[in-house]
Batch of 2 targets.
Target 1
Amino acid sequence: MAGPGNSDGLSRGKALVFASIALLIISAYLVRLFSMQVVDNYIYREQADEVSRRSERIPTRRGEIFDRNFDQPLVTNIDTFAVLLDLSSVPADGLQELIERLAEYLNTESSYIWSRIPAVRNQSFSAYEIWSGASYHQIARIAENIDRFPGVSWESRATRYYTQGALLAHVLGYTGEITAEELQILYNEGYAGAREIGKTGVERQYDNILRGEDGIRFGRVDARGRRIYDLEDIPPTLGNSIVLTIDRHIQDLVEMALGPRNGAALVLDPSNGEILAMASYPDYDPNIFYTSELEGSIQALYDDPRSPLLNRTIQAAGSPASTFKTLMTAALLQEGTFDPHDEIFCPGYVQVGDRIFRCHDLDGHGSLDLYEALAESCNVYFYTIGKDYLGVQAIVDYSHQFGLGDVSGIDLPGEVRGLLPDPEWKERTYGVPWVGGDTVNMSIGQGFMTVTPLQMANLVAGIINDGTIYQPHVLKEIRYQDSLELIQRFEPRVLRDVGVSPEVLEQVRIAMRGVITEGTANVVITTRDTEVAGKTGTGQSGQEDYKHSWFIAYAPFNAQPGESQYVVVVWVDATNEWEWWAPKAANIIIHGITNNMTFEEAVEDLQPLWYMTRTQLREYLESIDAGGIEE
């Protein structure tokens, strides 16, 4: 039987056990409470901070683009407005009516605004951009009636503006929203948060220089995503501006001289590869890409069968026709396989196998030496030289040396190689061998061969520079956007040496001068303020009234030390009714550059009879007492 001592000991033991358990429980609660309030607080605070913290872009301003005169921008930024819609603030039964009202105020279709709103969307605060490029007048109208537009807001956006409209459109290009495919390619190049990217032209080529870097604004939002207050800003970095080699005055002259004719024209400084003008027609106004209400006009550009977005100076290629005879002249003189002063008789045709290849003068030129043959563009002479004295391989080799069939590396996207065929290519492509007729065709720039206007400009530059061709380029300088201080200047780079002796190229230049003074271009190159050397080209198209028209030239012919020379190339393709326009346009361009004239001033000063209407021609002839002309 237990005594009182044992009973007290047992009671104390039980109390100790209960006290220990209670202490453990309390300790566990205290530890858990400490963990929740102190340790886990950091985790929850970080999670809460992550949930309530928002960031938004602070758009940068894209760099401006200037021409070589550096007196006013060709491309700048203007402030327009983006219209935003917060669906959480719009009554469920009022969205249709709101969209229709917005469409009326923005002068568009309601279907377009619906297309800007995601089909799957959350109900929290989220503003969708439903319109871009809104004018101040449109925003003012909405603001005056804001009670009728719940959930509608707007923000200012820096939008690209092309100050010269369609002038230089193919060189400058345009920008647009970055696509998922572009972002996937460019993600690791700093484009992770980019919204806008250059799509074509200089805007695309130098996007990394022009675009800058957006800033970030951090802030707090409530449970519905509404901003409560701002935390901090990381300011944007401005894009740099660039200065082009283009002279907008020469560009305007060239575009006006080319006129509304499908084709291309360019002016090149052969001493350094600078492009002074680069025109392509049809053209377009890049400003239409920045106004939502012109979506139909943008689609019309894509659907136009004339391909107005194509830069024909570097992205279209055609047979060089008789302009190729300048290269044939250089090859013959360099190879020395035939004395240039010996004559070849032209009866108006040659027969190769069972085929007849005709000269453009069907009655024949008679006997001609090399210089007379180039001046008169005698096909028979060059048929014979190509077939009997050079051969296809030599023609191909010299073409490669002058850069035909290869890209020049100009700093514009989309340049094509053209086509320089050879026997292996024909066998591989058509499964038939090269024949003598192919060599004959190639000898006058016909057949399979195609070239770009820029390639022909480089060919002329190589002839002028005793064999050196500089890489053509449109970038001249990079400058800070805010201060316009110089960052970097482009240094000329040698692209290739054509491997023809200076003595030979001097003879080619003399022969090209003869084309103007005694040959096919004599009646149309009428400027007398500078000496021009060049070569005409007429490409057959299969239609009598539609032919390709080429003219490659440079001036002045014999430049004095320190005097600037210009290469001028004009190509009018066979989609235009035949009017031999390329040399006519070049005449105006060269005269305008030489005398620092506008297109209108050059035409008036030249008084070209072929440029006048019949009424103007009659009045002109009467003014010089030459009498009228018959209808």
Note: DSSP finds 22 helices and 23 strands in the chain.
Target 2
Amino acid sequence: MTVGTFSLVLHSHLPYYRKAGKWPFGEENLFEAIAETYLPLLNAFNALRAEGIQAKVTLGITPILAEQLADEYLKEGFEAYMSDVLDRIELDRERYEGTGDPRAELADFYHDWYRDRLHDFQETYARDLLGAFRALQDDGCLEIITSAATHGFSPLLSRDSSLSAQFKVGVDNYKKYFGRAPRGVWLPECAYRPGYEEGETYRPPIDQFLHENGLNYFFTDSHAVEGGKTAGYRRYIGLYGNIEYIPMPERPLSGLTTYQGYWMPENPVAVFARNEAAGYQVWSAAEGYPGDPWYREFHKRDGHSGLQYWRVTGPNCDLADKDFYNPQLAAQRVHENSDHYVGLIYDMLKRYQEASGEEGHIVVPFDTELFGHWWFEGVEWIKQVIRKMAKGSGIRRVTVGEVVESEPPSHAYQLPESTWGAGGHYHVWMNPDVEFMWPIIHRCEERMEELVRRVPTPATPLQERALNQAARELLLLEGSDWPFLVTTGQAKAYAVERFNDHVDRFDTLVDAILAGTLDEETVAEIEGIDNAFSEIDYRDFANRQARAGVKS
């Protein structure tokens, strides 16, 4: 007998790093995630499948991440990166051998670990991670969902053309790699806004663009459904750095629960909210599992090799005082923490069942890169949670698409303007540090519409290439990563430079198209840097702004 259902949702996303630096910001961030998160996840899901257990994880892979995982240049870069890591580990082995330093044994551990990940990439998965994830979906182990093409912050885009195109390109990109249409979508930053009238135009709700593109469910944060106060950071604290927390004004309590989904009032699209308590146990740096003293410390690195040889040690322990990591003792804590989590989820579902007389559904979404990359032991924790739930726990694991199909929501609810960012509002992506970006983004949106209107049809082959490349640059400059990295202080100069680079390439192309001065060399050069989305069609960026009072 079951007490309810559980859906683990993993949102996999990184900025577009291709040919945009190596370290500390750039391609090596992608390579770290491949080695420490994506490959271990594939191994975990396949190990469970070999045991006869379908993971039933809802896995988001953003289109811009998919493009990078499929890119041959970046695959070669990953192999070179892994070879360099192994070389640095070998130097550490020589440096610490015979000294009595615990790093000697840990270097042996890391040598085997990274060697195996390189073997997984080249041999087990034949350098095709997307194909490996697709095989798991085709076998019923996962449900893969999409997102906006470049993770653009949807509510602040000024033109419905670019907002619609973000999702259309996302859907088309998904079909290219996964051979089917997606059912679910991750709204970038869980950012939602209802429909509203703006002067003489009507801005449709975000869910209308989802419905138009065949998407039938998405996610939001708990406060957007329950009301009340926002509880703080909704993502693992390590992903934020230092950011001012500005609470949202308290909303009236709605009386609704996150133990079920809801239909949007205007479109047949369902929304599922994060369960606050179930998520907090994982994402909280202070009280969640990643802060366990025996887990590997993310922030302290060896001065020679950059390897992470230390453990968390304590919540207020200075980096200089960290103790050395012990993989065996960390593994023991994974067993204990996974036992605790399965018990927590069971108790929550049981209490809801007893109070309501019906089974509840717990949804817990996280950034995928938390597991393995930020929290080194996190992927093994996921595997053990799934295995323990599968073995008579009374908890039924489901993908969110299965819920929409077999147990669809029975009520509708209009979400308010909201995000899963700090404070629950738009502040992370619209504040004095980043507000300069938005007039530029809006100008570029309008210029793209102008291009589509003014260029004759059919365009010449060179014009068509340039138009499609301009559309790529528009999508790339719209990415939510640039204001996020500025606001959090993680990579302010890098993010501003990246934003300006895409704006410059966009303007270069638009100016040349409109002036009739296009040349093959310029177009080819820009295509060689930003080559995402072969499926893009500039015609999708035609003006589609609706008149006020018209809700088409």
Note: The mean pLDDT is 94.
